[in-house]
Fold Crp/Fnr family transcriptional regulator.
Amino acid sequence: MDDPSFDFLKSKFHVTKKTYKVLQDLAKRRKLLSGESIVEQGNKSNNVAFLTSGLMRAYSTLESGKEITKNIFVPISFVGPFSSILKDKPSLFCYEALVDSTIFEIDFHEFIKISRANIDISNLYNRILESVYVLYEAKQLETAALDATQRYLQLKRRIPNIENLIPQYQIASYLNISPVQLSRIRKTLK
């Protein structure tokens, strides 16, 4: 039987069956209901997740109550408060399931401990960091170079039915525009 998680890790990060087995032994499968979080803003967690189904987001709530959505994660993605874990500080973001989702959680410190003794896991970690950096750089360029309509169309290409999955204010927050502006964009595109 095919295993999409293994297939992804093998194709993207050159993971062997042996390395995948190590990851399986470390990981705990968890189902999240829509609205459930893996870490709340202001809290700490040592876990990072591998999203295999559903949608998640990383968002921060300002003192004014306004939400800023930093990212929307689709399968298959790595999700978690990496900065919080690395700095041993509370998370600046809440990591929340937007729809019912399935993740595999790994204790980051255990993963690092194993990576120090296992070159394949260490190499995997390096490739994941490289991949996350490339995605981060692309997101920065998209935000700086594209206007709101282009960013919306880009999001729709990535998640074609997003309007049916999450509230408009969350889409607007991700695009860094107001819900009214999003409504105008959608109206002009019809």
User: Anything to note?
Assistant: Helices lie at 4-13, 17-26, 82-87, 108-117, 119-145, 148-158, 168-175, 179-189. The longest strand covers residues 47-53. The chain is about 50% helix and 20% strand.
